[in-house]
From TrEMBL:
<keyword id="KW-0131">Cell cycle</keyword>
<keyword id="KW-0472">Membrane</keyword>
<keyword id="KW-0175">Coiled coil</keyword>
<keyword id="KW-0812">Transmembrane</keyword>
<dbReference type="InterPro" id="IPR011922">
    <property type="entry name" value="Cell_div_FtsL"/>
</dbReference>
<comment type="subunit">
    <text>Part of a complex composed of FtsB, FtsL and FtsQ.</text>
</comment>
<feature type="coiled-coil region">
    <location>
        <begin position="27"/>
        <end position="54"/>
    </location>
</feature>
<protein>
    <recommendedName>
        <fullName>Cell division protein FtsL</fullName>
    </recommendedName>
</protein>
<keyword id="KW-1003">Cell membrane</keyword>
<keyword id="KW-0997">Cell inner membrane</keyword>
<keyword id="KW-1133">Transmembrane helix</keyword>
<dbReference type="GO" id="GO:0005886">
    <property type="term" value="C:plasma membrane"/>
</dbReference>
<dbReference type="Pfam" id="PF04999">
    <property type="entry name" value="FtsL"/>
</dbReference>
<keyword id="KW-0132">Cell division</keyword>
<dbReference type="GO" id="GO:0043093">
    <property type="term" value="P:FtsZ-dependent cytokinesis"/>
</dbReference>
<comment type="function">
    <text>Essential cell division protein. May link together the upstream cell division proteins, which are predominantly cytoplasmic, with the downstream cell division proteins, which are predominantly periplasmic.</text>
</comment>
<dbReference type="GO" id="GO:0032153">
    <property type="term" value="C:cell division site"/>
</dbReference>
Length: 87
């Protein structure tokens, strides 16, 4: 009876050790993935900040006015060119 109990305890100990090893290995894999995802998040946050700054620069009214004048040849109409249409 003692040999059976001893065998069961040894099997349980080995199974427990294998479970601990598997859990630690899984933890390491998940930690590596978490680190990669955090790094990706940080890079995306930096890029998002850059894009927000670029959008603010592009949407600035002076810049739009400058592009309209230089690239498109647009200008404000003279007072004589303005026609008011009344209903």
């Amino acid at each position: 009876m003692t040999r059976v109990l001893l065998a069961v305890l040894i099997v349980a100990t080995v199974a427990s050790a294998i479970g601990v090893i598997y859990a630690r290995h899984r933890h390491r894999l998940l930690f590596v993935e978490l680190s990669r995802l955090e790094r990706d998040r940080d890079e995306l946050n930096i890029e998002f900040g850059r894009l927000q700054l670029e959008q603010a620069t592009v949407a600035e009214s002076n810049r739009i006015d400058q592009i309209a004048r230089t690239r498109l040849g647009m200008k404000f109409p003279e007072a004589a060119d303005v026609v008011v249409v009344r209903p």
